[in-house]
Amino acid sequence: MHYESHEQHIITQAIGLLERQLQARTVVLTQPDAVRSYLRLQLERQDREVFMVMYLDSQHRLIACETPFTGTLASVNVYPREIVKQALAYNAAAVILAHNHPSGMAEPSQADRTVTDRLNAALALIDVCVLDHIVLGHGEAVSFAERGWLNTTIV
Q1: Please, what sign has the CA dihedral across residues 9, 71, 144, 55?
Q2: What's the whole-model pTM score?
Q3: DSSP for 42-85?
Q4: Which of 40, 77, 138, 155 has the most crowded CB, counting CB atoms within 10 A?
């Protein structure tokens, strides 16, 4: 049990360091691997599905990272209107979407693809680019951009 608390302490410290770097806008999120590393720390230890949005400026620096929706063990409801409102509030130029699969299987479902298409269309109306949607399972992550499922890529 002591080992678990020590391990949790290290994870908490790592998240804190990453968040300070990201908030200082010193880290530019241009590579899916960097994004995956950050998200792995945030999402893999969740016991229910959570949906996260990273709001970025025009240089792909993090403005804010939020978890607007939390669901159940097997699903999470995502409301595009709420994400559009936040993107406007932050004056974001781009977003990276992410969510976890507590089952451990990172393979995106058809529902994941559908919600991504809906978000992409809604955000395009306000000139906000969806750079990626990353689905995390236990030890693995699937990038929509890398699979060619988005019209945009992280440049």
Answers
A1: negative
A2: 0.81
A3: HHTT-SS-EEEEEEE-TT-BEEEEEEEEE--SS-----HHHHHH
A4: 40
Question: How many distinct structural domains can be found in the chain?
Answer: 1
Largest Cα–Cα distance of the chain, in whole Å?
Answer: 51
Residue 38 counted as domain residue? yes
Q: 103-129: per-residue pLDDT in tens?
A: 889 999 999 999 999 999 999 999 999
Write out the DSSP string of 9-38: HHHHHHHHHHHHHHHTT--B--SHHHHHHH
CATH of the domain at 90: 3.40.140.10
Cα distances (Å, whole numbers) of residue 82 to 6, 64, 67, 85, 155 = 37, 15, 11, 5, 26
**Residue 13: domain span:** 2-143
